[in-house]
Design goal:
Main location (chain B): secreted
Radius of gyration of chain B: 26 Å
Distance between the termini of chain B: 38 Å
Shape of chain A: globular
Structural class of chain B: alpha/beta
Largest sheet of chain B: 8 strands, mixed
Enzyme class (chain B): hydrolase
Strand order of the largest sheet of chain A: 6-7-8-9-10-11
Low-confidence stretches of chain A: 1-24, 252-266
Distance between the termini of chain A: 62 Å
Strand content of chain A: 35-45%
Mean pLDDT of chain B: 88
Radius of gyration of chain A: 21 Å
Shape of chain B: elongated
CATH architecture of chain A: Roll
Number of domains of chain A: 1
Largest sheet of chain A: 6 strands, antiparallel
Protein name (chain B): Carboxypeptidase A1
Number of helices of chain A: 4
Oligomer: heterodimer
CATH topology of chain A: Nuclear Transport Factor 2, Chain: A
CATH class of chain A: Alpha Beta
Subcellular location (chain B): Secreted
EC number (chain B): 3.4.17.1
Strand content of chain B: 15-25%
Helix content of chain B: 25-40%
């Protein structure tokens, strides 16, 4: 019968577009194409906002003033057939390092099954963009002129202190880690930078500034601390280049030996380009 | 939105500066007449052109300014740090500004830092403070220091405070609970615990502050509560984990229990309770940070509280404190089913958060665990609620991720103060609605 035949493929379409962890979601009607408004404090709205900010921080590559989430103002989600859930967020932002009002962003975040989330974001900056560029420029030149590689450990330290000298280095770690965090974020797993375990500058012959980082990323909701080895190349005015390898903090095997640097059995990624 | 005082005073300083300050501080202690640095500032200049570099080098020639170069001019892009005595501030800044040389103020008042350093040195010289009045509430402490504090508090307030040992940890450390009581027998009680996840340092630190606050409290609110109810406060709910965060791994969350058949150590104490135990929202993998353990109450730290609650039988409010995220949560975490008392709990949470925010404007969200953060099975307050303790809440204190678990010590007291405002609301409501 023709009517039934036509109905069947549509039903299959609906089934195939159910996200894998459907049990974890609140019972929304999963009708494709319909915009579902979300409570701004709903966890998926908050984490979609963070995913967007991770993307924005890594692509704007400004170690002087990376952005942090202040508040989600408005959020909604829509199911895109065959692809996944797309989140629409409007949020206010604050300076990651000093917490000053930084403006607001509108962003869409489409979570895909096998690729990093697709983010489109537009931010209105409350800060003086020129001043920020100048700070980045000054920092860049300072780093370029180092004859002896800059090294540091534990930023922030166990008491939460960040030495004044290390603030911009912390900003650079945020920018690089944001790249990793954006790529690894899913609808149900989010990340925040917990600490820079160590950082060591690599003096290069070309103009670029390079660092080897070991950072700790806090994974939510698993609560895991992931140890990421991150090689970062910063050329002013160009997108940041990051090569990384992450593994869960291998705490079980240590016994009083301090922070483990993680096993080799992790995920290894790099951006395009030569190192 | 303010977020508490994260001042530049908690800046740590380079080795040579530290030596200088130490010298100055020691000098100040030894002979009270030596140099003081009141109003002195440390300016930083990063010369980005030869002209700028020259202007800075010129400053070195001007002896009458008495400038103290902490970092001498080295070349373009290298920071130059200068301690400028108060009388020279005006001319130096004018010189820099007139020549278009940008500078920043690294240290606003050198003497303030010297004083701080001196205080810290005095504190370090004494391993145990002689009273809870000289205890440093603005620093993080070790397990030994916290246990010593408890004994001091009891000794100073024997009619109000007593210390109970409710069990022993895997590594055989005593588990202590402070009881605040004005008398009576088995009065209805409020339970507060901090530090169940050992890396959440601001919680144990806040617990210490709460203990002192309770004994100090002069106002009607707390007096009314203590007239009718007892307060139990467990400051270090996971002593093994806490010791481990000091000696080995600052990011340790779980207990330190070992099981044959696994190389990994520890169970998540907030997944080990008998409420939806082993369900979604906890891991069966011993190496996971949310490992629920082989069975409910397998962890002595959890069993100790379970036994205490069951034998007391009269606890009316149960508050378990975590960090970070700035949230006030009520059950359930293991299921989307709403608790029967949802409306009332939601209203109490709303008032508590409003009170909290009124102090420093800190932004909190509130709701049930599962809708606000994520599904979590075997959690503390799911179990306590199911035991009939209606006013079961969990806090996630500061911050929202900038420092996370590594919250600067300067935020301990503001965090404790604002959290206390919320606790007062919950305690007052409990007292006014005893069941």
């Amino acid at each position: 019968m023709p009517g039934l035949r036509a109905a069947l493929p549509a039903a299959l379409l609906l089934l195939s577009s159910f996200p894998p962890a459907a049990a974890e979601r609140l019972p929304w009607p999963q009708v494709p194409g319909v915009m579902h408004p979300l409570n701004p404090s709903h966890r998926e709205a908050v984490w979609a906002a963070w995913t967007a900010l991770h993307y924005i921080n890594s692509h704007e590559a400004s170690p002087s003033r990376p952005l942090a989430l202040h508040k989600v103002v408005k959020a909604a989600a829509k199911m895109i057939p065959r692809l996944g859930w797309k989140y629409y967020v409007h949020c206010t932002t604050e300076g990651y390092i000093h917490g000053e009002n930084a403006g607001s962003c509108f962003a869409t975040v489409l979570y895909l099954k096998k690729s990093p989330p697709v983010v489109h974001g537009k931010c209105v900056h409350a800060q003086n963009k020129k001043q920020i560029q100048e700070e980045d420029h000054r920092f860049y030149e300072y780093l370029q002129h180092q004859k002896k590689p800059i090294t540091a450990n534990y930023i922030p330290d166990s008491n939460g202190n960040i030495a004044h000298d290390h603030l911009q280095l912390w900003g650079l770690a945020i920018v690089g880690s944001s790249y990793i965090m954006w790529k690894q974020s899913t609808e149900h797993t989010g990340y925040l930078l917990a600490q820079v375990s160590s950082v060591k500058q690599q003096i290069r012959k070309d103009n670029a500034v390079a660092f080897k980082f070991i950072v700790l990323l806090h994974e939510i909701p698993t609560q895991q601390m992931n140890v990421c080895h991150m090689y970062l190349v910063w050329t002013l005015g160009h997108p940041i280049r990051v090569k990384y390898s992450c593994a869960p903090d291998n705490h079980g095997l240590e016994d009083g030996s301090g922070q483990d640097s993680g096993s080799a059995a992790g995920t290894s990624h790099e951006t395009k380009g030569n190192f | 939105m303010s977020r508490g005082a994260v001042k530049t005073l908690d800046t740590s300083i380079q080795l040579e500066m530290r030596a200088l300050l130490l010298l100055a501080a020691l000098g100040a202690v030894a002979a009270a007449t030596t140099e003081n640095f009141v109003g002195h500032q440390v300016l930083r200049i990063v010369p980005s052109s030869d002209a700028e570099l020259q202007k800075v080098q010129e400053l070195q020639e001007l002896e009458h300014l008495q400038l103290d170069f902490w970092l001498s001019p080295r070349g373009l892009g290298n920071p130059v740090d200068i301690r400028v005595p108060f009388p020279s501030l005006q001319p130096v800044k004018a010189h820099l500004e007139a020549n278009g040389v940008p500078y920043s103020i690294m240290i606003e008042d050198v003497q303030a830092l010297v004083d701080l350093e001196q205080m810290q040195m005095l504190r370090r010289r004494r391993f145990v403070p002689l009273s809870t009045s000289t205890f440093d509430y603005t620093s993080y402490h070790t397990l030994e220091e916290i246990y010593a504090f408890m004994d001091l508090l009891v000794a100073e307030n024997p009619n109000l405070v007593s210390k109970l040992e409710i069990g022993r940890t895997t590594e055989n450390r005593p588990i202590y609970v402070l009881k605040f009581s004005k008398g009576g027998t088995n009065r209805p009680a409020i339970w507060i615990d901090t530090g169940i996840h050992s890396r959440e340092w601001v919680t144990q630190a806040s617990g210490i502050w709460f203990a002192k606050k309770i004994v100090q409290e002069q106002d009607e609110g707390l007096a009314n509560i203590l007239d009718q109810m007892d307060i139990f406060l467990e400051i270090v709910t996971n002593p093994d984990g806490f010791a481990f965060t000091h000696t080995s791994n600052r990011m340790w969350r779980k207990t330190r229990s070992k099981r044959s058949g696994s190389l990994c150590v520890g169970v998540d104490p907030n997944r080990n309770w008998d409420a939806g135990f082993g369900g979604s929202g906890a891991s069966s993998n011993p190496c996971s940070e949310t490992y629920h353990g082989p069975y409910a109450n397998s962890e002595p730290e959890v069993k100790a509280i379970v036994d205490f609650v069951k034998s007391h039988k009269n606890i009316k409010a149960f508050i378990s404190i975590h960090s970070y995220s700035q949230l006030l949560l009520y059950p359930y975490g293991y299921t989307t089913t709403a608790v029967p008392d949802k409306e009332e709990l939601h209203q109490v949470a709303k008032e508590a958060v409003a009170a909290l925010s009124s102090l420093y404007g800190t932004n909190y969200k509130y709701g049930s665990i599962i809708t606000t953060i994520y599904q979590a099975s075997g959690g503390t307050i799911d179990w306590t609620y199911n035991q009939g303790i209606k006013y079961s809440f969990t806090f996630e204190l500061r911050d929202t991720g900038r420092y996370g678990f590594l919250l600067p010590a300067s935020q301990i007291v503001p965090t404790a103060q604002e959290t206390w405002k919320a606790l007062e609301v919950i305690m007052a409501h409990t007292r006014g609605h005893l069941y």
